[in-house]
Design goal:
2 copies of one chain form a homodimer. A 4-stranded parallel β-sheet of chain A has the order 2-1-3-4, with helices on both faces. In chain A, strands 7-6-8-9 form a 4-stranded parallel β-sheet, with helices on both faces. Chain A has a two-stranded parallel sheet with strand order 5-11. Chain A is an alpha/beta fold. Chain A has helices spanning about 1-5, 15-20, 35-50, 65-80, 95-110, 130-145, 160-175, 190-200, 210-225, 260-275, 305-315, and strands at about 25-30, 55-60, 80-85, 110-115, 125-130, 150-155, 180-185, 205-210, 235, 255, 280-285, 290. Chain A starts with a helix and ends with a helix. Helix content of chain A is about 45%, strand content about 15%. The structure holds a DNA duplex.
DNA sequence: GTGAAAGCGCTAACAG
DNA sequence: CTGTTAGCGCTTTCAC
C-alpha cells in the first residue's frame, strides 16, 4: 500500500471495465445541446456525474430520430453504465421497436436507463409536473381576465407536449373557455411561424407557448409586427431557461428545475446500478409560476362583452 | 466471417481499449455548456466525432479552473483518445503547471490535444481570427462616424479577450481615436454591469462587446434604462450565437463558425492520432462581419465638435 | 483470514 | 500470407 501510494498508483479503468463489463461513464441523449433547455439539463447531469467519478457522454440528435437511434446503438456497444434520455421519444412503430431492442440489450449487460420526460417506454423517470405547470400558466392568464387564450404546443408525437396541452385544456374548460391549440416544433422559428399564423385569424388576447424557446419566437414576431406585449397580447412560456431576465419584456413562465432534473437523473441511475431501486417509477419534480412582465389584463376593447364577468372574478379573489 | 455476420458479432470496445490503450472517445472541455457559444461548439464536435465512431465526453467547468483541472485529471485516467479545449486557459502558475503535467501524461499514453482558443500552451489549435474580427467590428463603427467607442472585454487572463482587444485598439489608434476598454466576465450579467458602469461616466456613442453573451447584457441594460439602440448608442457583439435574429434590435456582430470549429477540432484530433500531423500549428478560421440593426451613425448632438471630421472620412472612403 | 490463478476479449507479434 | 499465442490490468473465485 505504501509503495502504491508512493508511486501514485491509479487503477486502469479500461482493465477494470473489461472485467466488470461496465465503464464509469453515463450518457445523456438530448434533442439539441444548443437549446438552452437541454444545455441546462446537461450542465446539471455532468456536474452530478463527475461528483461520483463518472464521465458524461453527450449525444445530440438534432431532433432526428435516426441520429438518436444511431447514438443509442453506439452507446449500447460501448457499454456505458447508463443512459439518460432527456427528451421525449417518438410514438412511431419502427422507432419504438429499435429503441426497446437497445433498451433490452442495455439492461441485459447491466446498464440502467432513466428518462427525464414522459415516454411511452415504461422506464424509471424524473420528470417535471408538466400538467400542473400548464394549469398554473393558463390559470394565471384566466385570472387576469383573458378568455381567448391560444396555446402553441409541440409535436403530437411528444408526450411532454400532450401533458402541457392537457393542463391547458383542463384549465380552459374549467373556466368555461374553449381551448385553441396549434402545433409547431419546439424551436424559435416554430414560435414565430405559429404566432404569424395566429395573427391571421381572429387574434387571441393571450398566448401560452409550450416552451420558452418558442415563446421567444412569439415575442420576436409580435415585436416585428409592432404589437405590444403585454398591452395587446400577453405571452406565457414554459421552462424558465436562463437569460430570460434579460430579454424585453421579461417573460412570464413556468420554472422547470432543469439542472436539478439532470442531476436527479444521474442520482437515479446510480441507485439503479447499485440495485437499490428496481422500480420503474416516475418521480415528479415541482414547477413554479414565474410572473414577470409579459402578462397583463386584456385590453378592454379586446372582448368588450366579457369584461364585467372577468373583473368580477378578479375582485372576488 | 459468415458466422460472425450471422451472429451479428460486434468487437468489444473495452477489450480493444485495454489492448490498444485507447478508448474511442474524445473529450471536450468547455467553460459552460449552457453558454450558446460553447453549446454550438459541442454540437459541431459531437456530430463530427460520432461520424467517426467516437463518443464525446463533455466537461463543463462552469468557469472554475479547479473544476476544469479535476475534469482533466479524470480524462487522463480514463485514457480518452483526445481532449479538445474549447475555451482559453488561465495564465496562472499553479494552473499552468498542473495542466502541462496532465498534457504530458496524455501525450505519454498516446492521446492528442487540440485547442479551440489561443492558449499559452503550444498545442495544435483551430481558432477564429479574433484580431481581424475585432478590427472589422471596430472599423464598421468607425466607418459609421463613431469616435467614442468603448470596448467591453473579457478577463485579462483570457487570450481570446487579448486578441479581440488588440484588434480593437489597432483599429482605434489607426483612426486616431483613443481606445477605452473595461473588463467583465463573459456572461450576460457581466455585460449589464459593465454597461451600467459605462453609463456613469461620459457615455460612449458605441459599445463593442467581446462576446454576444455580454452584448445581450448590454442591450438589456440599455433597454431597461430606456436608451435607444442604435439611436443613442450602437452595439456590436462577437460570435454570432444562434437566436440573435430573434432579439430586438437584431445584433450586429462578428460571425465565428462555432460548430465548424468544434468539428475541425475533432478532425484535427483524428489526424494527430493517426500520426499524420505532428505540428503544433494553429489554423485560423475566417470570421465575417454581420451588419444588422444595432448599429447606426452617431447622433449629431452626441459629439458636435468631431462630426465634420467623421463625415469627411466617410465621404472619402 | 491472506494469496494465487484464471480469464474478461481483444490485438500485435511471431512462427509456419 | 495465414494461424497461433502471449498478455493488456484488473476482479473474482477458490484453495490454503
Amino acid at each position: 500500500m505504501a509503495a502504491a501510494n508512493h508511486l501514485s498508483y491509479r487503477p486502469n479503468p479500461m482493465a477494470r471495465a473489461l472485467r466488470t463489463r461496465r465503464v464509469p461513464t453515463v450518457a445523456i441523449v438530448v434533442h439539441d445541446v444548443a437549446d438552452p433547455y437541454f444545455a441546462e439539463i446537461v450542465r446539471g447531469a455532468t456536474a452530478a456525474a463527475s461528483a461520483r467519478g463518472y464521465l458524461t457522454v453527450v449525444c445530440s440528435s438534432d431532433r432526428d430520430p435516426m441520429t438518436e437511434l444511431r447514438y443509442v446503438e453506439m452507446l449500447c456497444e460501448s457499454r456505458v453504465s447508463g443512459v439518460i434520455f432527456a427528451g421525449g421519444g417518438l410514438d412511431e412503430p419502427h422507432y419504438r421497436r429499435r429503441m426497446t431492442g437497445y433498451a433490452r440489450s442495455i439492461e441485459h449487460y447491466g446498464g440502467a436507463i432513466v428518462a427525464l420526460a414522459p415516454r411511452s417506454e415504461s422506464w424509471p423517470a424524473e420528470v417535471a409536473d408538466n400538467r400542473h405547470g400548464a394549469r398554473l400558466a393558463t390559470g394565471h392568464l384566466l385570472g387576469l381576465g383573458h378568455r381567448r387564450i391560444a396555446m402553441i404546443s409541440g409535436p403530437t408525437t411528444l408526450r411532454t407536449a400532450h401533458e402541457r396541452e392537457a393542463g391547458y385544456s383542463e384549465a380552459m374548460t374549467g373556466a368555461g373557455c374553449d381551448p385553441f391549440v396549434i402545433r409547431a416544433d419546439l424551436t424559435i422559428v416554430g414560435g414565430t411561424t405559429a404566432m404569424a399564423q395566429l395573427l391571421h385569424g381572429e387574434a387571441p388576447t393571450a398566448v401560452f407557448a409550450a416552451s420558452d424557446t418558442m415563446a421567444l419566437g412569439v415575442l420576436s414576431e409580435l415585436m416585428r409586427k409592432g404589437i405590444d406585449v403585454p398591452g395587446a397580447i400577453s405571452v406565457v412560456g414554459f421552462d424558465d431557461i436562463p437569460g430570460l431576465e434579460f430579454i424585453h419584456p421579461r417573460l412570464t413562465t413556468v420554472r422547470v428545475p432543469m439542472a436539478e432534473l439532470g442531476a436527479a437523473g444521474v442520482e437515479r441511475l446510480m441507485l439503479l446500478l447499485d440495485g437499490e431501486d428496481r422500480s420503474s417509477q416516475t418521480v415528479v419534480h415541482q414547477v413554479e409560476l414565474m410572473v414577470r412582465e409579459s402578462t397583463a389584463p386584456p385590453r378592454v376593447s379586446a372582448s368588450p362583452a366579457r369584461r364585467p364577468a372577468a373583473s368580477a372574478r378578479i375582485r372576488r379573489s
